[in-house]
Write a structure and sequence with these properties.
3% of the residues lie in helices and 39% in strands. The chain is mainly beta. The chain has one domain: Neuraminidase (6 Propeller), CATH 2.120.10. It is globular.
Length: 380
């Protein structure tokens, strides 16, 4: 507690732009918590919203103390992939189990579970043939999952009833790569037009290099468009892209690196990319970004800092990613580097809802799914 208090004092004394840490601007909510359980990795699944109705995916496992450098989940016990739904803009949440709705084990490819062992109480489903997708359906949700992070196969599911039921899995083609390790990130451009932002294996088969793909026929076919960044050397990686559309022709993508977050800009709808200033120079160790274009046109990026003090942080860009504010501390009370992996949406009233996994002294050793509801500063 002494270290955390000193950190906050330092923020207020040395960085006036961080003064919006005031508690009146943030509200902390527990999305999912169970004693001796592990809740994790919303960034691996996806978030969707329809006004104040918000849906987010996450993993549930059993807590096991594996030390300060590991994910504290028991790999010898089942892992469940669940959904949390809020009908009031993230103020309260209900947990849903899509596997109990006849979907098979949603989010788990047929060849196994990326994180742990497969659940045993519902059957897996084999991939099905693609069907024409109407991406503009007002109740649409889309999620993509992988078999392993070095570029195995990836599969996707779609929903036309706000995630109450799902159709899939459909195998995503490899598009000339050595395998794709997909998490959910996409931009919808038309009824049958969608851009996917993915992580492909590097030339050595290891993770990873970000790429963009697209469909113009409602998902019947997908084609490679471009590499977003150069291939990282050696054991380095560039993974888990998060995208926003800036204009009809402009796209901004942030990418998780080993200890930083990079950004890339395209002025030609993803045909080519230019490196921008890094939004985050040091995340302690790898942690993915969540990024959204706010209603006033500014861009917000949110990430988990895996260096002490373990924190959820945000920055804002008023010039489409050319420069970024100093970080805003959404919360700084983490007790473990095993945290982060955010997803975020903006409510109709302008508040941002960031969902992530976390552990703190007040709660105990469990990793839980938390949400911070944040009022961003007004544009100057």
């Amino acid at each position: 507690m002494k270290k955390y208090t000193s950190f906050l004092i330092l923020l207020f004394l040395s960085a006036p732009t961080l003064s919006l840490f005031a508690q009146s601007n943030v509200k902390q909510v527990k999305v999912y918590y169970e004693k001796d359980k592990f809740g994790g990795w919303p960034a691996n699944f996806g978030i969707w919203n329809w006004g104040n109705e918000i849906l987010v995916g996450f993993a549930k496992g059993t807590y096991k103390n594996l030390g300060p450098k590991a994910h504290n989940i028991d790999r010898e016990k089942e892992e469940f992939h669940l959904l949390a739904r809020s009908m009031d803009g993230g103020e309260s949440w209900n947990i849903e189990d899509p596997g109990k709705n006849g979907n098979g084990d949603l989010f788990v490819p047929s060849h196994g579970n990326y994180h742990g062992i497969m659940r045993k109480d519902v059957p897996l489903q084999e991939p099905i043939a693609p069907k024409v997708i109407n991406f503009k359906d007002p109740n649409f949700a889309f999620t993509i999952r992988m078999t392993n992070n070095d570029g195995g196969e990836s599969l996707y599911w779609t929903s036309n009833d706000k995630g109450h039921s799902w159709d899939g899995p459909v195998k995503l083609p490899e598009m000339g790569t050595k395998g794709i390790a997909a998490r959910t990130d996409y931009i919808i451009d038309g009824n049958n037009e969608c851009l996917l932002f993915l992580t492909a294996a590097k030339s050595n088969g290891k993770e990873g290099r970000p790429m963009m793909a697209k469909t113009n026929d409602g998902g019947i076919s997908w084609s490679f468009v471009s590499w977003i960044s150069p291939e990282p050397e050696g054991s380095n990686y560039a993974i888990m892209p998060a995208s926003v559309r800036l204009s009809p022709t402009e796209i901004l993508v942030s990418v998780r690196r080993n200890k930083s977050i990079e950004a890339f800009y395209s002025a030609d709808n993803g045909l080519s990319w230019q490196r921008q200033i890094d939004p985050v120079e040091n995340t302690g160790e790898g942690n993915p970004p969540a990024m959204l274009k706010m209603k006033d046109g500014r861009v917000c990026i949110i990430w988990g800092s895996r260096k002490e003090p373990f924190s959820m942080l945000a920055k804002i860009s008023s010039d489409l990613g050319k420069s970024w504010s100093e970080p805003y501390v959404l919360r700084g009370d983490g007790n473990s580097r095993d945290m982060g992996y955010p997803r975020a949406v903006q409510r109709p009233d302008g508040k941002i809802v960031a969902v992530y996994y976390f552990a703190d002294e007040a709660t105990g050793h469990e990793r839980y799914i938390g949400a911070t509801i944040w009022t961003p500063p007004a544009a100057k």
